[in-house]
Design a protein that fits this description.
The protein contains 16 helices and 36 strands. By secondary structure, it is α/β, with parallel strands linked by helices. The strands form eight sheets. An eleven-stranded parallel beta sheet has the order 11-12-15-18-21-24-27-30-33-35-36. Strands 13-16-19-22-25-28-31-34 form an eight-stranded parallel beta sheet, with no helix packed on it. It has a seven-stranded parallel beta sheet with strand order 14-17-20-23-26-29-32. It is elongated and about 95 Å long.
Length: 663
């Protein structure tokens, strides 16, 4: 054993040290950073390995550790202490921050040890939860106030937000979390909500807010440190309410809870008062003063009496005082006694209440096969995703969603079980779905592109018409507006707008049909492996680059086919290629298309892949316009003859069924 420790120490001392931009960040800043190159750097791997070393055998992490600043001597001790499980916690962001960090590192570097550590952390969070739905501050349990249900510093809310991201979003799909674990995460979240509802404090029979911690048996507000007495918390309660407000299709109990808490925030707010901080020459707070001043934003006490909501303050003697000036310098200046966080709840409450009121009055009237979405409240839902979520899964007849005019700033996903669905916009110009995700914003490594779509389709036999889809991220790299990973999909009379990677069509052997659409972009703005037929479409290039980047699988008869389309561009755009092979067996054909002068005479590019010149299939037939110069095309492309055109009939490519004739 001693020999192994010595060897381990020698390895650590010989290792490299973390340097460069990694050290420019605190731990919290590092975890939440969206700097594009930070997680791709080799330095980040040393930090990640330190995070693994800090992880206890049970799966959780200790708090207040800076993994980018661990000495060789400390590493040896951490290795020895790893199995004791002492100090594993959710306090001060511990465990949740490490898991978020490891997920990002794994996305960029794909080292299995980071994925395993994340899964182990997830299992820890599920194991640490009380049966009543709450979480203690430490697990394994540590005697004292640490066993209380812990809302302090948003510990439980942080855990629940992470669990929901795991089972409800695509954010952690790259970790290949099992369906069983995702289901366990959902159950843990649901139990957590019930715990929150059970612990909401009643003042004279009226629901109010929450304490920073509650007794695990009685649910009553509980004492923590000497100066943290049972109370109502302005700070912790705000994040709890925002969590409840974010729940889709909330129950009556949740609605009543949020409404009551918001009413309490209004009642308990402190007006015409501000806190002034006094700093020394080193920027350290040396005093705080409470000053009366009109027309300032309201504030709330961190601790407020359970009976009358009056803000109070304590020294380490635990004696209540009702003026901040009455307590000593150490606690007065070293603790955050006031907060403005409830203002966010009040800012969002009116719209939230309007949304749930409409949903509540119509919940028993909604036809799950026929729904209407309207921003003005005249429909069944305010947002499209809620309607999709309410639709019957794997329906025995078609589901139709009418989408009224409006700008829907949301990220929409039609799930695999949303088969046989029709979404019909009121008008192409005024029914707009928009979002702004892009590669660096997602920041999940080399596959971040596939997490960026504004609109994603995974359900087979899908129809979309009279809608504008936008990715408004701008020219910041890959940013998908529409991703289609489904079979038998028809997109008609739609505008699909973006820059790089606007439309992603995929699914080996899947067929997809675009009719009378406007599609714009910059680089590779139509890409993927599906068989996609574009008819009577406008294909607009916004800059000198490439239109298509097909990745047709080997052995698939057709890739991208453009028929009767117009290829356009602004006057300043003069050098656009019809396509290049994202994969070696790419197939793209243009038939009877009008090509502007922006199309280069060569037509096609091999993407520095000589093998693709023999294995890909790039062809044209009977095109027109100044951009169609067949004699100057690259020698490895084809000009089709009349005898081959029957192979490119719509029914031949899309199949014998009539699904593509849907309207």
């Amino acid at each position: 054993m001693v020999r192994n420790i010595v060897l381990f120490m020698l390895i650590l001392i010989a290792g490299t040290t973390v340097h460069g931009q990694v050290l420019d960040h605190s731990w919290g800043e590092l975890v939440n950073s969206n700097e594009p190159n930070l997680y791709a750097s080799p330095e980040i791997l040393e930090v990640a390995d330190n995070v693994l070393l800090l992880q206890k055998e049970i799966g959780g992490w200790p708090k207040n550790k800076q993994p980018q600043n661990i000495t060789a001597k400390e590493k040896v001790q951490l290795h020895i202490d790893k199995n004791d499980n002492v100090g594993a916690t959710i306090d001060n962001g511990a465990t949740t921050l490490e898991m978020i960090f490891l997920a990002k590192v794994y996305a960029h570097h794909n080292h299995e040890r980071y994925r395993i550590a994340f899964i182990k952390g997830l299992e820890y969070l599920i194991q640490a939860q009380y049966e009543n739905g709450g979480w203690p501050q430490f697990y394994p349990l540590r005697k004292g106030y640490y066993t209380h249900i812990t809302y302090n510093d948003d510990a439980m809310v942080n855990v629940m937000n992470l669990l929901r991201d795991i089972y409800e979003t695509q954010k952690y799909d790259h970790l290949n979390i099992s369906a069983a674990l995702k289901n366990a995460a959902k159950n843990a979240f649901d139990k957590g909500v019930q715990c929150i509802l059970k612990t909401q404090y009643k003042q004279n029979g009226v629901l109010t807010a929450w304490c920073a911690q509650h007794d695990v048996e009685t649910y009553a507000p509980a004492k923590a440190r000497a100066y943290e007495l049972p109370s109502l918390s302005g700070k912790e309660s705000a994040k709890i309410v925002l969590l409840l407000m974010s729940i889709k299709n909330p129950s009556e109990e949740i609605i009543n809870s949020v409404t009551a808490a918001s009413n309490w925030f209004k009642k308990a707010q402190i007006t015409d008062t501000r806190v002034e901080r006094i700093y020394n020459s080193d920027g350290k707070v040396i005093d705080k003063k409470v000053i009366a001043e009109h027309n300032v934003k309201p504030i709330w006490g961190r601790f407020m009496n359970l009976d009358d909501n009056r803000a109070f303050f304590c020294d380490r003697d635990g004696i209540k005082k009702y003026s901040l000036s009455e307590i000593g310098d150490e606690r007065r200046n070293g603790y955050r006694w006031y907060t403005d966080e409830p203002q966010e709840v009040l800012d969002e409450f009116s719209q939230w209440q309007k949304n749930v009121t409409i949903k509540r009055t119509k919940v028993n009237k909604i036809d799950i096969y026929n729904m209407t979405v309207a921003k003005d409240g005249s429909g069944d839902f305010f947002d499209l995703q809620s309607a999709i979520n309410a639709a019957k899964g794997f329906p025995d007849k078609s589901v139709t969603i009418l989408l009224k005019n409006g700008i829907y700033n949301e990220k929409v996903k039609v799930y695999e079980w949303n088969t046989n669905m029709r979404i019909i916009g009121e008008s192409t110009e005024n029914t707009i779905i928009t979002f702004d995700d892009h590669f660096n914003k997602i920041n999940l490594g080399r596959n971040s592109t596939f997490h960026t779509p504004t609109f994603s389709i995974e359900g087979n036999d899908f129809y979309l018409t009279n809608v504008t889809l936008k990715n408004t991220a701008g020219e910041v790299g890959q940013a998908i507006a529409l991703a289609v990973h489904a079979n038998r999909v028809k997109i008609e009379n739609c505008r699909i707008m973006g820059n790089q990677d606007t439309v992603y069509v995929t699914g080996e052997g899947y067929v997809q049909y675009f009719k009378n659409c406007y599609i714009e972009g910059t680089t590779d703005f139509i890409f993927g492996q599906a068989t996609a037929f574009f008819e009577d479409c406008i294909i607009h290039s916004k800059k000198n680059s490439y239109i298509t980047a097909a990745s047709t699988p080997k052995g698939i008869a057709y890739g991208f086919v453009f028929k009767n389309c117009r290829l356009t561009a602004p006057k300043e755009v003069t050098q656009v290629y019809l396509g290049r092979p994202w994969r070696t067996h790419a197939k793209t054909v243009f038939l009877n298309c009008e090509m502007g002068s922006h199309i280069v005479p060569k037509g096609w590019d091999n993407w520095s892949n000589k093998e693709a010149e023999e294995q890909s299939f790039y062809a044209e037939y009977n095109n027109t316009g100044p951009g169609y110069i067949p004699k100057q095309r690259v020698e490895w492309s084809y000009q089709l003859g009349p005898n081959m055109i029957k192979e490119y009939e719509r029914k031949t490519i899309l199949g014998n069924s009539l699904w593509f004739q849907i309207d």
